[in-house]
Amino acid sequence: MENSNPIKKITIKGFKSIRDLDELELSNLNALIGANGVGKSNFVSYFKMLGEMMDQRLQVWTKKQGGADRILTYGVKITPRLETLVEFGENGYKFSLEPTAEDGFTFADESFIYQGIKTPCKLVLSSGKSESMLLKKNSEESLVKVPENCYSSISSWKVFHFHDTSDTAGVKRLCSLHDNAYLRSDASNLAAFLYLLREKYPDLYQKIRKTVRLAIPFFDDFVLRPQALPSGEEQIRLLWKQLDSDYPFWPSQLSDGSIRFICLATALLQPNPPSTIVIDEPELGLHPYAITLLGALMRSNSQRMQIIVSTQSVPLLNQFSIDDLIVVEREDDASVFKRLNEADFKEWLEDYSIGELWEKNVLGGRPGR
Question: What is the 3-state secondary structure (H, E, C) of 29-94?
Fold first, then answer.
């Protein structure tokens, strides 16, 4: 994606269980590991907040979270503000949020930092606003392209969450054929997106199809047939067929794990991918072999996009290196994020896989007493 950059460093202070995360370095492939409740999902939630901010929906998102008091670490009486800095490319985006009397947020500070010159410059956006000014500044004529580059990068980062495979899940329902500009975070437009790939990126479509067949041996192909409504709009549903049959099956006739793998494979193999994608526990419902395939997909495609994944899966960890891991633990009732150095585990790796080392609690990130 043009004018977008992966994340170099991230600082988060006062967001849910993340009390003080200072300059965590991110690489092309980042796997967050840790016990339940240590804060991995809160790290993912932070990126959801950024996405809502880019869509001018911070206040709506805050209300759905239960208000500012539920977002600030241990509430507004303990944590008076949320502060964060994200560094990517030559740019940085910094802001701080303070709670309002209505339990929403107001921007105490919002600014860009540009480091592409000898003396870094800071461009102040605003303060006292209820929504980010990034989109507005992006649309203004300016000789300085920092707002444009910042908005392009941050708005391209996507959080994918494919956990909902119930009968009413969007991925199983009809969607508009023209809703295909990008794969939505819940894959509710998967049928339209795959149809676009089949028509415009046939080689890539076949790669997705073959990858799905590795995990689901009886699968043959998707059946993507647009249907016109009286209004002229076209809709499409995700149907499929199995080997040696032309009978179209419904998505409800696939297992939940199979649907999730299809969504994940499409997200990782998509053309013009986001600069950064975030996935929370993608192994849910997947067969161990499918998890191994998923890890290989992540590893190979991390050269095209930055991947941040939260996981507790041993087969998935075995596809990564020690340097890819970020161990998340609870210390003093707050989330702590630690990068590991592969050289420190050289002797262990001669006899054990990474997944085995995690199970043995050599790497940390396992439940403690």
Answer: EEEEECCCCCCHHHHHHHHHHHHHHHCCCHHHHHHHHCCHHHHECCCCCCCCCEEEEEEECCEEEE
**Contact, 240 vs 219, CB < 8 A?**
yes
- Residues constituting the chain: 369
> What is the rounded distance in angstroms from the CA atom of residue 276 to the CA atom of residue 248?
35
Show the tokens assigned to 354.
């990474």
Q: Determine if the pTM surpasses 0.85.
A: yes
* Number of neighbours of residue 165 by Cβ within 10 angstroms: 21
- Tens of pLDDT, residue by residue over 183-225, are 999 999 999 999 999 999 999 999 999 999 999 999 999 999 9
Tell me, what DSSP letter sits at residue 173? Answer: S
User: Which residues, 6+ apart, have CB-to-CB distance to 146 below 8 Å?
Assistant: 91, 112, 114, 123
Whether 302 contacts 5, CB under 8 Å: no
Q: How far apart are CA 36 and CA 54, in angstroms?
A: 30
CA-closest candidate to residue 179, choices 236, 140, 102, 135:
236
Strands 21-25 and 7-13: antiparallel
Q: Is 293 helix (H, G, I), strand (E, B) or coil?
A: helix
C-beta of residue 18 within 8 angstroms of C-beta of residue 71? no
Question: Which range (109-118, 244-253, 304-313, 356-365) has the least confidence?
Answer: 109-118
